[in-house]
Amino acid sequence: MSSDTPKKPLNIAVLTVSDTRTFETDKSGATLIDKLQQAGHSLAQHSIVKDDVYQIRAAVSQWIADQDVHAVLVTGGTGFTARDTTPDALMPLFGRTG
């Protein structure tokens, strides 16, 4: 794609995974939203869920099934503690990876 090809704006959902963040304290989610909007995209939805495999999987699965959501950005839950389960929650939602 050449740089002069018009880009189609996407509807993007943002999920923050955290046991401690609220909409008021979610700086990572706010930064993602700001950057995607600066790039000409639209925020489809923004949610915050606890570091829980099933809550993460449920939120992302709902967006995958929504034809109006073109992309999903996930922040948080990727550290080294037992509660950081984002990769474990999301891997089953992807097809073959290798």
Question: What does this protein look like?
Answer:
It is built from three helices and three strands; from the N terminus they run E-H-E-H-E-H. Strands 2-1-3 form a three-stranded parallel beta sheet, sandwiched between helices. It has one domain (11-91): Molybdenum Cofactor Biosythetic Enzyme, Chain A (3-Layer(aba) Sandwich). The chain is α/β, with parallel strands linked by helices and 98 residues long.
What are the SSEs and their pairings?
Elements: E1 11-17, H1 27-38, E2 42-49, H2 53-65, E3 71-75, H3 86-90
Parallel strand pairs: 1-2, 1-3
Which terms would index this structure?
20% strand; 98 residues; three-stranded parallel beta sheet; single chain; Molybdenum Cofactor Biosythetic Enzyme, Chain A; alpha/beta; 3 helices
Provide a compact summary of the structure.
The protein has helices at about 25-40, 55-65, 85-90; strands at about 10-15, 40-50, 70-75.
What is the number of helical segments per DSSP (H or I, 4+ residues)? 3
Query: Looking across the biggest beta sheet, what order are the strands in?
Result: 2-1-3
β-strand number = 3
Q: What fold name stands as the CATH topology?
A: Molybdenum Cofactor Biosythetic Enzyme, Chain A
Head-to-tail CA distance between termini: 26 Å
**How much strand?**
15-25%
Largest sheet: 3 strands, parallel
What CATH architecture label applies? 3-Layer(aba) Sandwich
Topology order in helix (H) and strand (E) letters = EHEHEH
Low-confidence segments: none
Work out the count of structural domains: 1
The CATH homologous superfamily: MoaB/Mog-like domain
Tell me roughly what share of residues is in helical segments. 25-40%
How would the global form be characterised? globular
Q: Please tell me how large the radius of gyration is.
A: 14 Å
CATH class: Alpha Beta
What does the average pLDDT come to? 90
Q: Would you tell me the structural class of the helices and strands?
A: alpha/beta
